[in-house]
Design brief:
About 20% of the residues lie in helices and about 25% in strands. The chain has helices at about 20-30, 115-120, 155-160, 190-195, 200-205, 245-250, 340-350, 370-385, and strands at about 35-40, 50-55, 60-65, 70-75, 90, 95, 105, 110, 130-140, 140-145, 175-185, 220-225, 225-230, 270, 275-280, 285-295, 295-305, 320-325. The strands form 3 sheets. It has an 8-stranded mixed sheet, with helices on one face. Strand 14 and strand 15 form a beta hairpin. Helix 4 crosses helix 7 (about 340-350). The two termini are about 30 Å apart. The relative contact order is 0.17. The structure holds FE2/S2 (inorganic) cluster and fe (ii) ion.
Length: about 400
């Protein structure tokens, strides 16, 4: 385990958080080659099983082919660009475009073109294969990358994660999917990410929801570009939840997963740049950060709870529920929900970024304070400055 963060200082300019040109640069140099969680392996068990997703402007899908291999493609027909498949399900043995029914194999090869001879003469097959994306699997989780050959390969990106493994298995029947919640936030995605890895604010902003977490009794551990959060409030090994969180969850009757009496795994797993896992004794949450513009971000949170548990889902929400601050009936600090407290702060930061007086002052040093913020910014810069070796996009 390592938590050797450098002493923090702000590395990104103010404009990085609202400027359209900076955002365009991120689309090109970061999100075009970013690994993002897309599904559990159990959702892609059989040949033909597929899921779709969107990574910024890239519509993608992942499918299990007839040989049992997972493949990822851009969900864009090579004829006139129609979206090929929707949602999730099973494709049978081929991908059929609904528009003019060009047909592709599950390995992306163009197989059929209706009325080919009279309309086209012939269509060059190899040049018209589906555009490939990249796919990787780790601990039952499937990740996708819009780049066919990512400059940061999957194995390098995921390296070191095993040391921080969580015992939850979402596909073995011990847990069930409990719904999706969308937080629509008026802030840049980096404002959200930086707040998420800031250990300094926990015991102050969240004193009523997460408890007395001070820089010395919570810790972020650095794993490559990623960061894993633990509470170190208790004697013994670090645990996934704060003392107050455990009291609130157990007190509210949330059911613990068997064997999770001492949860010695991280409580937050930030997988740079867009994936957040929250493993805990009462469930497992997967959040995907979806930047929707330079100053807007949606956080999509999927929840799994112990099978047989019908109590109130700790993370909130039923299927497709949307949370917006302006629709809350109470003040965010009265919500009793740390996610809403964070959202409130992120929007307050975002509103101030355009002030010429806005500046980041000294940052709190330490792995349970603000050092992980700079670690994150360094990864953003590594991508934007072309340090991954494929090309240079000057930041
Ligand atoms: S756009 Fe797909 S077949 Fe025409
Ligand atoms: Fe927070």
């Amino acid at each position: 385990m390592t938590d050797d963060f450098d002493a923090p200082r702000q590395r990104l300019p103010r404009t990085a958080y609202f400027d359209a040109a900076w955002y365009a640069k991120e689309l090109d140099a970061l999100f075009d080659r970013a690994w993002v969680w897309v599904a559990t392996e159990g959702q892609l068990k059989d040949p033909g099983d597929f899921v779709t997703c969107r990574v910024l402007h890239h519509p993608l899908f992942v499918v299990r082919d007839a040989d049992g291999e997972l493949r990822a493609f851009h969900n864009v027909c090579r004829h006139r660009g129609c979206e090929l498949v929707e949602g999730r399900g099973n494709l049978g043995t081929a991908v059929r475009c609904p528009y003019h029914r060009w047909t592709y194999s599950l390995q992306g090869a163009l197989r059929g073109v209706p009325n080919e001879k009279e309309c086209f003469g012939s269509v060059p097959r190899t040049a018209m294969s589906l555009h490939a994306a990249a796919v990787g699997v780790h601990q039952g989780m499937v990740y996708v990358n819009p780049h066919p050959n990512p400059p940061e390969p999957f194995d390098a990106w995921i390296a070191g994660l095993d040391e921080h493994a969580w015992p939850h298995r979402l596909d073995d029947g011990s847990m069930r999917f409990a719904g999706e919640l969308r937080y629509e936030m008026r802030c840049n995605w980096k404002v959200f990410y930086e707040n998420a890895v800031d250990g300094y604010h926990l015991g102050y902003l969240h004193d009523r929801t997460l408890g007395k977490l001070r820089p010395h009794n919570n810790v972020w551990r650095r794993v490559g570009r990623h960061a894993m959060w633990y509470s170190t409030e208790r004697d013994g090994s670090p645990q996934s939840s704060s003392i107050l969180t455990a009291q609130l969850a157990d007190g509210a009757g949330a059911q613990r997963l068997p064997g999770h009496e001492t949860p010695n795994y991280p409580g937050v797993v930030m997988l740079f740049p867009l994936t957040v896992f929250s493993p805990n004794p009462w469930g497992f949450y997967i959040s995907v950060i979806e930047p929707t513009g330079p100053e807007s971000t949606t956080l999509r949170t999927l929840s799994w709870v112990p099978e047989g548990f019908w109590g109130r889902v700790f993370a909130g929400g039923g299927e497709g529920e949307v949370v917006r601050l302006e629709e809350l009936k109470e003040h965010p600090l009265e919500s009793g929900n740390f996610q809403i407290e964070d959202m409130w702060i992120c929007e307050k930061i975002q509103r101030n970024l355009r002030s010429p007086r806005f500046a980041v002052g000294p940052m709190a040093n330490g792995p349970g304070a603000e050092s992980p913020v700079m670690h994150f910014q360094q990864s953003v810069l590594a991508y934007l400055q072309g340090q991954l070796g494929d090309r240079v996009a000057a930041a």
